[in-house]
Amino acid sequence: MSEAKGSYIIVALGRKRKVNFSFSPSFTIMKVVIKPRKGLANLDFKELWSYRELFYFFAWRDIKIRYKQTFFGIAWAVMQPFIAMVVFTVVFDRLADMPSDNIPYPIFVYAGLLLWNVFSTSLNDSSQSFIRNVNIITKVYVPKIIVPAASIIVSLVDFLFAGLIFGGIMLYYGFMPHFQGLLFLPLLLLITIFTSLGLGWFFSAVNVKYRDIRYALPFFIQLLIFVTPVIYPISIVPQKYQWLLALNPMTGVIETFKAGFLGTTLINWPTLGISAVVSIVFLLFGLVYFLKTEKAFADVI
Description:
Blueprint: E1 4-12, E2 15-24, E3 29-35, H1 45-50, H2 52-67, H3 76-95, H4 105-127, H5 129-132, H6 134-139, H7 146-150, H8 153-173, H9 185-209, H10 213-224, H11 242-246, H12 249-262, H13 269-293, H14 297-300
Antiparallel strand pairs: 1-2, 2-3
């Protein structure tokens, strides 16, 4: 007698799974194999939408933890870029006489630090999100993909407060920005979020297995600022090497913001285009790697 085969759909832990089965009457043995979907097919948008309130909870909790029971409160959001601006101004402007495209150097460097801090804070927080939420991950089911994503919201709140200080610095120097440059800001923030989220998904997955990532990544981020035109204009880099800097998505983001808002130079559309494409590559790469490895998080962490 021939072997009977078929398939049916079950729902386990809130996720749909296709089950293949085979039945051989001669031996009366039934074999059931449960296989998860692979790659991007494992991304269930309906499930993510049903857990949207949990996403809001994680984001709001991280915001409260950042500012609750702190001596300076919201001032922490602006102290980091402001102190960094002062240090860079003393070292690179006063001592090294770094060019700043005819813009007061504190304004020039603070404009770069605004978006750089969104990237660095988002990447650092998202990469460590599972370590901070280990009790939740191991005890209840949640779509794990939303945990690193929710941690990025804090950096956007920091950006809003730091932007107010930026306005005060421009008033102090009597500098009038090009407000039409703000039209590019949503696109630049989107590229920054794509970059930090893709890398955040990747490093959060790696950090579950290799805990030394939590120590190595902040050091790497500190070094990365020196290959990003935050404290210097890209014009000081030889033309033949500028395409290498463009492979860093934050290069196009920061240069476009300075060009559009401060009027330092004309907007370099090819550089911005390269940054946008690379950010999407990072996003897809981080997402695919995360979905491939997330099934083992609860056991390894």
